[in-house]
Amino acid sequence: xxxxxxxxxxxxxxxxxxxxxxxxxxxxxxxxxxxxxxxxxxxxxxxxxxxxxxxxxxxxxxxxxxxxxxxxxxxxxxxxxxxxxxxxxxxxxxxxxxxxxxxxxxxxxxxxxxxxxxxxxxxxxxxxxxxxxxxxxxxxxxxxxxxxxxxxxxxxxxxxxxxxxxxxxxxxxxxxxxxxxxxxxxxxxxxxxxxxxxxxxxxxxxxxxxxxxxxxxxxxxxxxxxxxxxxxxxxxxxxxxxxxxxxxxxxxxxxxxxxxxxxxxxxxxxxxxxxxxxxxxxxxxxxxxxxxxxxxxxxxxxxxxxxxxxxxxxxxxxxxxxxxxxxxxxxxxxxxxxxxxxxxxxxxxxxxxxxxxxxxxxxxxxxxxxxxxxxxxxxxxxxxxxxxxxxxxxxxxxxxxxxxxxxxxxxxxxxxxxxxxxxxxxxxxxxxxxxxxxxxxxxxx
Length: 445
Prior knowledge:
Order of helices and strands: HHHHHHHHHHHHHHHH
Radius of gyration: 21 Å
Structural class: mainly alpha
Largest sheet: none
Number of strands: 0
Distance between the termini: 26 Å
Number of helices: 16
Strand content: under 5%
Number of domains: 1
Helix content: over 70%
Shape: globular
Protein backbone atom coordinates (compact mmCIF):
# COMPACT_ATOMS: atom_id res chain seq x y z
CA UNK A 1 0.00 0.00 0.00
CA UNK A 2 1.19 3.53 -0.77
CA UNK A 3 0.10 6.87 0.69
CA UNK A 4 0.09 9.31 -2.26
CA UNK A 5 -0.86 12.33 -0.17
CA UNK A 6 2.71 12.92 1.06
CA UNK A 7 5.85 13.51 -1.03
CA UNK A 8 6.94 14.80 -4.43
CA UNK A 9 4.02 14.64 -6.85
CA UNK A 10 6.03 13.76 -9.97
CA UNK A 11 7.92 10.91 -8.33
CA UNK A 12 4.82 9.49 -6.65
CA UNK A 13 2.75 9.48 -9.85
CA UNK A 14 5.59 8.12 -11.99
CA UNK A 15 6.48 5.28 -9.61
CA UNK A 16 2.81 4.43 -9.15
CA UNK A 17 2.05 4.53 -12.89
CA UNK A 18 5.11 2.56 -14.03
CA UNK A 19 4.07 -0.87 -12.67
CA UNK A 20 0.56 -0.33 -14.07
CA UNK A 21 2.06 0.60 -17.43
CA UNK A 22 4.27 -2.49 -17.43
CA UNK A 23 1.31 -4.59 -16.34
CA UNK A 24 -0.82 -3.29 -19.18
CA UNK A 25 2.05 -3.86 -21.61
CA UNK A 26 1.86 -7.52 -20.66
CA UNK A 27 -1.94 -7.42 -20.78
CA UNK A 28 -1.86 -5.99 -24.30
CA UNK A 29 0.74 -8.59 -25.23
CA UNK A 30 -2.09 -11.08 -24.73
CA UNK A 31 -3.87 -9.50 -27.66
CA UNK A 32 -0.75 -8.65 -29.65
CA UNK A 33 0.47 -12.26 -29.47
CA UNK A 34 -2.98 -13.53 -30.40
CA UNK A 35 -3.10 -11.20 -33.40
CA UNK A 36 0.43 -12.02 -34.61
CA UNK A 37 -0.14 -15.78 -34.39
CA UNK A 38 -3.58 -15.56 -35.99
CA UNK A 39 -2.36 -13.31 -38.82
CA UNK A 40 0.68 -15.41 -39.61
CA UNK A 41 -0.59 -18.96 -38.99
CA UNK A 42 -4.36 -18.94 -39.62
CA UNK A 43 -5.08 -16.16 -42.14
CA UNK A 44 -6.48 -12.68 -42.66
CA UNK A 45 -10.11 -13.84 -42.29
CA UNK A 46 -9.32 -15.15 -38.80
CA UNK A 47 -7.34 -11.96 -38.13
CA UNK A 48 -10.40 -9.88 -38.96
CA UNK A 49 -12.66 -12.20 -36.90
CA UNK A 50 -10.58 -11.87 -33.71
CA UNK A 51 -10.25 -8.11 -34.17
CA UNK A 52 -13.97 -7.62 -34.79
CA UNK A 53 -14.80 -9.45 -31.54
CA UNK A 54 -13.03 -6.99 -29.26
CA UNK A 55 -15.42 -4.00 -29.51
CA UNK A 56 -18.39 -6.23 -28.67
CA UNK A 57 -16.53 -7.74 -25.71
CA UNK A 58 -15.59 -4.24 -24.57
CA UNK A 59 -19.20 -3.08 -24.85
CA UNK A 60 -20.47 -5.97 -22.71
CA UNK A 61 -17.96 -5.47 -19.91
CA UNK A 62 -17.81 -1.66 -19.91
CA UNK A 63 -20.63 -1.00 -17.43
CA UNK A 64 -19.28 -3.62 -15.05
CA UNK A 65 -15.72 -2.31 -15.27
CA UNK A 66 -17.14 1.16 -14.65
CA UNK A 67 -18.36 -0.06 -11.25
CA UNK A 68 -14.82 -1.31 -10.55
CA UNK A 69 -13.48 2.17 -11.37
CA UNK A 70 -16.04 3.65 -8.98
CA UNK A 71 -14.88 1.25 -6.28
CA UNK A 72 -11.24 2.19 -6.92
CA UNK A 73 -12.05 5.87 -6.36
CA UNK A 74 -14.01 5.13 -3.18
CA UNK A 75 -11.23 2.89 -1.82
CA UNK A 76 -8.62 5.57 -2.60
CA UNK A 77 -10.61 8.28 -0.81
CA UNK A 78 -11.39 6.10 2.23
CA UNK A 79 -7.76 4.98 2.36
CA UNK A 80 -6.60 8.60 2.16
CA UNK A 81 -8.96 9.37 5.06
CA UNK A 82 -7.54 6.35 7.01
CA UNK A 83 -11.01 4.74 7.18
CA UNK A 84 -10.00 1.03 7.08
CA UNK A 85 -13.47 -0.26 7.96
CA UNK A 86 -15.08 1.25 4.88
CA UNK A 87 -12.13 0.18 2.73
CA UNK A 88 -12.87 -3.44 3.67
CA UNK A 89 -16.62 -3.02 3.13
CA UNK A 90 -16.00 -1.60 -0.34
CA UNK A 91 -13.76 -4.54 -1.25
CA UNK A 92 -16.37 -7.09 -0.15
CA UNK A 93 -19.14 -5.32 -2.03
CA UNK A 94 -17.09 -5.14 -5.22
CA UNK A 95 -16.27 -8.86 -5.26
CA UNK A 96 -19.90 -9.88 -4.73
CA UNK A 97 -21.13 -7.57 -7.49
CA UNK A 98 -18.49 -8.67 -9.99
CA UNK A 99 -19.22 -12.36 -9.53
CA UNK A 100 -22.90 -12.07 -10.39
CA UNK A 101 -22.24 -9.52 -13.13
CA UNK A 102 -19.88 -11.95 -14.89
CA UNK A 103 -22.67 -14.55 -15.12
CA UNK A 104 -25.08 -12.03 -16.66
CA UNK A 105 -22.49 -10.79 -19.17
CA UNK A 106 -21.59 -14.32 -20.28
CA UNK A 107 -25.19 -15.34 -20.95
CA UNK A 108 -26.10 -12.06 -22.68
CA UNK A 109 -23.00 -12.13 -24.88
CA UNK A 110 -23.51 -15.68 -26.12
CA UNK A 111 -27.15 -14.97 -26.98
CA UNK A 112 -26.38 -11.70 -28.79
CA UNK A 113 -23.13 -12.50 -30.60
CA UNK A 114 -24.53 -13.51 -34.01
CA UNK A 115 -27.11 -10.65 -34.26
CA UNK A 116 -24.56 -8.00 -33.27
CA UNK A 117 -21.95 -9.17 -35.77
CA UNK A 118 -24.58 -9.12 -38.53
CA UNK A 119 -25.67 -5.64 -37.46
CA UNK A 120 -22.13 -4.31 -37.94
CA UNK A 121 -22.02 -5.71 -41.47
CA UNK A 122 -19.20 -8.16 -40.78
CA UNK A 123 -18.39 -10.00 -44.05
CA UNK A 124 -20.04 -13.44 -44.17
CA UNK A 125 -16.74 -15.27 -44.66
CA UNK A 126 -15.58 -13.90 -41.29
CA UNK A 127 -18.77 -14.52 -39.26
CA UNK A 128 -18.32 -18.19 -38.19
CA UNK A 129 -14.82 -17.66 -36.77
CA UNK A 130 -15.83 -14.40 -35.06
CA UNK A 131 -18.78 -16.07 -33.27
CA UNK A 132 -16.67 -19.09 -32.31
CA UNK A 133 -13.86 -16.97 -30.85
CA UNK A 134 -16.24 -14.60 -29.06
CA UNK A 135 -18.37 -17.27 -27.36
CA UNK A 136 -15.38 -19.21 -26.05
CA UNK A 137 -13.70 -16.01 -24.82
CA UNK A 138 -16.81 -15.10 -22.80
CA UNK A 139 -16.66 -18.38 -20.89
CA UNK A 140 -13.73 -16.84 -19.02
CA UNK A 141 -15.63 -13.66 -18.03
CA UNK A 142 -15.76 -14.65 -14.36
CA UNK A 143 -11.94 -14.83 -14.25
CA UNK A 144 -11.56 -11.59 -16.21
CA UNK A 145 -13.87 -9.72 -13.84
CA UNK A 146 -12.28 -11.31 -10.78
CA UNK A 147 -8.78 -10.29 -11.78
CA UNK A 148 -9.95 -6.78 -12.68
CA UNK A 149 -11.52 -6.53 -9.21
CA UNK A 150 -8.17 -7.36 -7.63
CA UNK A 151 -6.45 -4.74 -9.80
CA UNK A 152 -9.05 -2.09 -8.92
CA UNK A 153 -8.72 -2.76 -5.20
CA UNK A 154 -4.94 -2.70 -5.19
CA UNK A 155 -4.83 0.52 -7.23
CA UNK A 156 -7.11 2.21 -4.72
CA UNK A 157 -4.77 1.13 -1.93
CA UNK A 158 -1.76 2.54 -3.79
CA UNK A 159 -0.34 -0.88 -4.77
CA UNK A 160 0.33 -1.02 -8.50
CA UNK A 161 3.16 -3.58 -8.38
CA UNK A 162 1.49 -6.80 -7.25
CA UNK A 163 -0.85 -7.22 -10.29
CA UNK A 164 2.18 -6.87 -12.57
CA UNK A 165 3.71 -10.12 -11.38
CA UNK A 166 0.58 -12.14 -12.09
CA UNK A 167 0.13 -10.49 -15.49
CA UNK A 168 3.66 -11.49 -16.47
CA UNK A 169 2.96 -15.11 -15.54
CA UNK A 170 -0.37 -15.03 -17.37
CA UNK A 171 1.08 -13.48 -20.53
CA UNK A 172 3.90 -16.00 -20.78
CA UNK A 173 1.39 -18.82 -20.26
CA UNK A 174 -0.86 -17.33 -22.95
CA UNK A 175 2.04 -17.29 -25.42
CA UNK A 176 2.93 -20.92 -24.71
CA UNK A 177 -0.69 -22.06 -25.01
CA UNK A 178 -1.20 -20.05 -28.21
CA UNK A 179 1.76 -21.77 -29.83
CA UNK A 180 0.64 -25.19 -28.60
CA UNK A 181 -3.06 -24.90 -29.51
CA UNK A 182 -2.72 -23.01 -32.81
CA UNK A 183 0.56 -24.23 -34.32
CA UNK A 184 0.83 -27.60 -32.59
CA UNK A 185 -2.79 -28.80 -32.45
CA UNK A 186 -4.13 -26.68 -35.36
CA UNK A 187 -7.19 -25.57 -33.37
CA UNK A 188 -7.48 -22.18 -35.11
CA UNK A 189 -9.38 -19.37 -33.36
CA UNK A 190 -10.72 -21.89 -30.83
CA UNK A 191 -7.18 -22.43 -29.58
CA UNK A 192 -6.54 -18.68 -29.36
CA UNK A 193 -9.69 -18.14 -27.26
CA UNK A 194 -8.97 -21.12 -24.99
CA UNK A 195 -5.42 -19.91 -24.37
CA UNK A 196 -6.76 -16.55 -23.20
CA UNK A 197 -9.40 -18.06 -20.91
CA UNK A 198 -6.95 -20.46 -19.25
CA UNK A 199 -4.33 -17.73 -18.79
CA UNK A 200 -6.83 -15.35 -17.19
CA UNK A 201 -8.04 -18.08 -14.85
CA UNK A 202 -4.49 -18.86 -13.71
CA UNK A 203 -3.80 -15.13 -13.08
CA UNK A 204 -6.96 -14.75 -10.99
CA UNK A 205 -6.42 -17.82 -8.83
CA UNK A 206 -2.77 -16.98 -8.19
CA UNK A 207 -3.78 -13.43 -7.18
CA UNK A 208 -6.44 -14.72 -4.76
CA UNK A 209 -4.05 -17.22 -3.14
CA UNK A 210 -1.36 -14.56 -2.74
CA UNK A 211 -3.70 -11.92 -1.29
CA UNK A 212 -5.26 -14.31 1.22
CA UNK A 213 -1.82 -15.21 2.54
CA UNK A 214 0.02 -11.88 2.35
CA UNK A 215 -2.33 -8.87 2.41
CA UNK A 216 -3.54 -7.40 5.71
CA UNK A 217 -6.76 -5.83 4.33
CA UNK A 218 -7.89 -8.11 1.50
CA UNK A 219 -9.24 -11.55 2.32
CA UNK A 220 -11.20 -13.27 -0.45
CA UNK A 221 -13.64 -15.56 1.34
CA UNK A 222 -17.28 -16.00 0.35
CA UNK A 223 -18.22 -16.95 3.91
CA UNK A 224 -16.98 -13.63 5.33
CA UNK A 225 -18.06 -11.27 2.55
CA UNK A 226 -20.55 -8.54 3.50
CA UNK A 227 -22.54 -6.58 0.91
CA UNK A 228 -22.95 -2.88 1.75
CA UNK A 229 -25.85 -1.25 -0.10
CA UNK A 230 -24.76 2.32 0.67
CA UNK A 231 -21.27 1.71 -0.69
CA UNK A 232 -22.78 -0.03 -3.72
CA UNK A 233 -24.90 3.08 -4.38
CA UNK A 234 -21.78 5.25 -4.20
CA UNK A 235 -19.97 2.90 -6.57
CA UNK A 236 -22.91 3.06 -8.98
CA UNK A 237 -23.10 6.86 -8.77
CA UNK A 238 -19.42 7.19 -9.62
CA UNK A 239 -18.99 4.07 -11.73
CA UNK A 240 -22.06 4.07 -13.98
CA UNK A 241 -21.08 7.27 -15.80
CA UNK A 242 -17.62 5.73 -16.31
CA UNK A 243 -19.26 2.52 -17.51
CA UNK A 244 -21.57 4.37 -19.87
CA UNK A 245 -18.58 6.38 -21.08
CA UNK A 246 -16.79 3.13 -21.90
CA UNK A 247 -19.99 1.76 -23.44
CA UNK A 248 -20.13 4.79 -25.74
CA UNK A 249 -16.53 4.06 -26.68
CA UNK A 250 -17.32 0.39 -27.31
CA UNK A 251 -20.40 1.17 -29.38
CA UNK A 252 -18.39 3.70 -31.36
CA UNK A 253 -15.87 0.92 -32.04
CA UNK A 254 -18.68 -1.20 -33.45
CA UNK A 255 -19.81 1.78 -35.51
CA UNK A 256 -16.23 2.26 -36.73
CA UNK A 257 -16.17 -1.39 -37.81
CA UNK A 258 -19.44 -0.77 -39.65
CA UNK A 259 -17.78 2.12 -41.49
CA UNK A 260 -14.64 0.10 -42.17
CA UNK A 261 -16.44 -3.09 -43.20
CA UNK A 262 -17.99 -1.27 -46.17
CA UNK A 263 -14.53 -1.22 -47.80
CA UNK A 264 -14.03 -5.01 -47.70
CA UNK A 265 -12.13 -7.72 -45.82
CA UNK A 266 -8.69 -6.18 -46.44
CA UNK A 267 -9.70 -2.94 -44.73
CA UNK A 268 -11.35 -4.85 -41.88
CA UNK A 269 -8.17 -6.90 -41.36
CA UNK A 270 -5.98 -3.78 -41.50
CA UNK A 271 -8.18 -1.96 -38.98
CA UNK A 272 -8.07 -5.01 -36.68
CA UNK A 273 -4.26 -4.78 -36.70
CA UNK A 274 -3.99 -1.01 -36.19
CA UNK A 275 -6.60 -1.26 -33.46
CA UNK A 276 -4.21 -3.54 -31.55
CA UNK A 277 -1.29 -1.21 -32.22
CA UNK A 278 -3.42 1.76 -31.11
CA UNK A 279 -4.40 -0.02 -27.90
CA UNK A 280 -0.75 -0.66 -27.16
CA UNK A 281 0.31 2.90 -27.99
CA UNK A 282 -2.41 4.49 -25.86
CA UNK A 283 -1.34 2.67 -22.69
CA UNK A 284 1.00 5.38 -21.30
CA UNK A 285 -1.81 7.94 -21.39
CA UNK A 286 -4.37 5.57 -19.89
CA UNK A 287 -2.11 4.31 -17.12
CA UNK A 288 -0.83 7.73 -16.11
CA UNK A 289 -4.46 8.89 -16.08
CA UNK A 290 -5.37 5.99 -13.75
CA UNK A 291 -2.41 6.81 -11.52
CA UNK A 292 -3.48 10.44 -11.44
CA UNK A 293 -7.05 9.42 -10.53
CA UNK A 294 -5.79 7.46 -7.51
CA UNK A 295 -3.47 10.37 -6.60
CA UNK A 296 -6.37 12.84 -6.79
CA UNK A 297 -8.66 10.50 -4.81
CA UNK A 298 -6.19 10.03 -1.96
CA UNK A 299 -5.29 13.72 -1.79
CA UNK A 300 -8.91 14.85 -1.75
CA UNK A 301 -9.60 12.20 0.88
CA UNK A 302 -6.67 13.57 2.90
CA UNK A 303 -8.06 17.12 2.35
CA UNK A 304 -5.08 18.29 0.29
CA UNK A 305 -6.69 19.64 -2.91
CA UNK A 306 -3.74 21.98 -3.55
CA UNK A 307 -1.62 18.98 -4.63
CA UNK A 308 -4.02 18.09 -7.46
CA UNK A 309 -2.97 20.87 -9.85
CA UNK A 310 0.71 20.06 -9.38
CA UNK A 311 -0.06 16.39 -10.00
CA UNK A 312 -1.86 17.24 -13.25
CA UNK A 313 1.05 19.36 -14.52
CA UNK A 314 3.59 16.65 -13.70
CA UNK A 315 1.49 13.97 -15.39
CA UNK A 316 1.04 16.09 -18.52
CA UNK A 317 4.80 16.54 -18.92
CA UNK A 318 5.48 12.82 -18.50
CA UNK A 319 2.78 11.68 -20.93
CA UNK A 320 3.87 14.28 -23.50
CA UNK A 321 7.31 12.64 -23.67
CA UNK A 322 5.82 9.17 -24.12
CA UNK A 323 3.34 10.41 -26.72
CA UNK A 324 6.04 12.13 -28.77
CA UNK A 325 8.15 8.98 -28.94
CA UNK A 326 5.16 6.82 -29.89
CA UNK A 327 4.10 9.28 -32.60
CA UNK A 328 7.53 9.16 -34.23
CA UNK A 329 7.50 5.35 -34.22
CA UNK A 330 4.04 5.19 -35.77
CA UNK A 331 4.80 7.74 -38.48
CA UNK A 332 8.20 6.43 -39.56
CA UNK A 333 7.91 2.69 -38.83
CA UNK A 334 4.24 2.04 -39.67
CA UNK A 335 4.98 -0.43 -42.46
CA UNK A 336 7.36 -2.43 -40.27
CA UNK A 337 4.75 -2.62 -37.49
CA UNK A 338 2.08 -3.84 -39.90
CA UNK A 339 4.36 -6.55 -41.29
CA UNK A 340 4.75 -8.04 -37.82
CA UNK A 341 1.11 -9.10 -38.10
CA UNK A 342 0.59 -9.87 -41.79
CA UNK A 343 2.51 -10.02 -45.06
CA UNK A 344 -0.53 -9.22 -47.21
CA UNK A 345 0.56 -6.08 -49.15
CA UNK A 346 -2.91 -4.53 -49.40
CA UNK A 347 -3.58 -4.95 -45.68
CA UNK A 348 -0.14 -3.50 -44.86
CA UNK A 349 -0.69 -0.45 -47.09
CA UNK A 350 -4.11 0.32 -45.57
CA UNK A 351 -2.80 -0.02 -42.01
CA UNK A 352 0.24 2.13 -42.75
CA UNK A 353 -2.01 4.99 -43.92
CA UNK A 354 -3.87 4.85 -40.59
CA UNK A 355 -0.69 4.97 -38.51
CA UNK A 356 0.75 7.90 -40.46
CA UNK A 357 -2.39 9.96 -39.88
CA UNK A 358 -3.59 9.04 -36.38
CA UNK A 359 -0.38 8.57 -34.38
CA UNK A 360 0.70 12.17 -34.96
CA UNK A 361 -2.09 13.27 -32.60
CA UNK A 362 -1.29 11.06 -29.61
CA UNK A 363 -0.29 14.04 -27.47
CA UNK A 364 -3.84 15.37 -27.89
CA UNK A 365 -5.28 11.99 -26.90
CA UNK A 366 -3.03 11.67 -23.84
CA UNK A 367 -3.79 15.18 -22.59
CA UNK A 368 -7.53 14.55 -22.95
CA UNK A 369 -7.19 11.38 -20.89
CA UNK A 370 -5.21 12.85 -18.00
CA UNK A 371 -7.54 15.84 -17.65
CA UNK A 372 -10.38 13.32 -17.41
CA UNK A 373 -8.32 11.43 -14.82
CA UNK A 374 -8.48 14.40 -12.45
CA UNK A 375 -12.27 14.51 -12.63
CA UNK A 376 -12.62 10.74 -12.18
CA UNK A 377 -10.35 10.82 -9.14
CA UNK A 378 -12.60 13.44 -7.59
CA UNK A 379 -15.65 11.28 -8.22
CA UNK A 380 -17.05 13.57 -10.92
CA UNK A 381 -17.73 11.13 -13.75
CA UNK A 382 -20.98 12.42 -15.25
CA UNK A 383 -19.69 15.37 -17.27
CA UNK A 384 -16.73 13.41 -18.72
CA UNK A 385 -19.31 10.85 -19.87
CA UNK A 386 -21.20 13.58 -21.74
CA UNK A 387 -17.97 14.85 -23.32
CA UNK A 388 -17.12 11.33 -24.52
CA UNK A 389 -20.58 10.88 -25.98
CA UNK A 390 -20.35 14.19 -27.84
CA UNK A 391 -16.83 13.59 -29.18
CA UNK A 392 -17.65 10.10 -30.42
CA UNK A 393 -21.25 10.21 -31.55
CA UNK A 394 -21.68 13.83 -32.59
CA UNK A 395 -18.17 14.27 -34.05
CA UNK A 396 -16.24 11.07 -34.85
CA UNK A 397 -18.88 8.77 -36.34
CA UNK A 398 -20.72 11.39 -38.44
CA UNK A 399 -17.41 12.90 -39.61
CA UNK A 400 -16.07 9.44 -40.44
CA UNK A 401 -19.16 8.60 -42.47
CA UNK A 402 -19.23 11.92 -44.34
CA UNK A 403 -15.50 12.04 -45.11
CA UNK A 404 -15.34 8.36 -46.11
CA UNK A 405 -18.01 9.05 -48.74
CA UNK A 406 -15.61 11.54 -50.33
CA UNK A 407 -12.14 10.28 -49.32
CA UNK A 408 -12.60 6.51 -48.86
CA UNK A 409 -11.26 4.85 -45.71
CA UNK A 410 -8.76 7.73 -45.30
CA UNK A 411 -11.71 9.87 -44.22
CA UNK A 412 -12.44 7.44 -41.36
CA UNK A 413 -8.86 7.75 -40.15
CA UNK A 414 -9.03 11.59 -40.09
CA UNK A 415 -12.25 11.58 -38.07
CA UNK A 416 -10.38 10.07 -35.08
CA UNK A 417 -7.96 12.96 -34.31
CA UNK A 418 -10.71 15.50 -35.06
CA UNK A 419 -12.80 13.94 -32.27
CA UNK A 420 -9.78 13.97 -29.91
CA UNK A 421 -9.30 17.71 -30.43
CA UNK A 422 -12.96 18.37 -29.63
CA UNK A 423 -12.85 16.09 -26.57
CA UNK A 424 -9.73 17.77 -25.18
CA UNK A 425 -11.17 21.26 -25.68
CA UNK A 426 -14.37 20.40 -23.80
CA UNK A 427 -12.57 18.49 -21.01
CA UNK A 428 -10.10 21.28 -20.30
CA UNK A 429 -12.86 23.91 -20.33
CA UNK A 430 -14.77 21.87 -17.72
CA UNK A 431 -11.63 21.34 -15.62
CA UNK A 432 -11.14 25.12 -15.43
CA UNK A 433 -14.62 25.55 -13.89
CA UNK A 434 -13.46 23.67 -10.75
CA UNK A 435 -16.88 22.05 -10.32
CA UNK A 436 -15.28 18.60 -10.02
CA UNK A 437 -13.77 19.55 -6.62
CA UNK A 438 -17.23 19.43 -5.03
CA UNK A 439 -17.93 15.80 -6.00
CA UNK A 440 -15.57 13.97 -3.59
CA UNK A 441 -16.99 11.08 -1.52
CA UNK A 442 -14.99 12.33 1.48
CA UNK A 443 -15.57 16.01 2.17
CA UNK A 444 -12.56 18.23 1.40
CA UNK A 445 -13.93 21.11 3.42
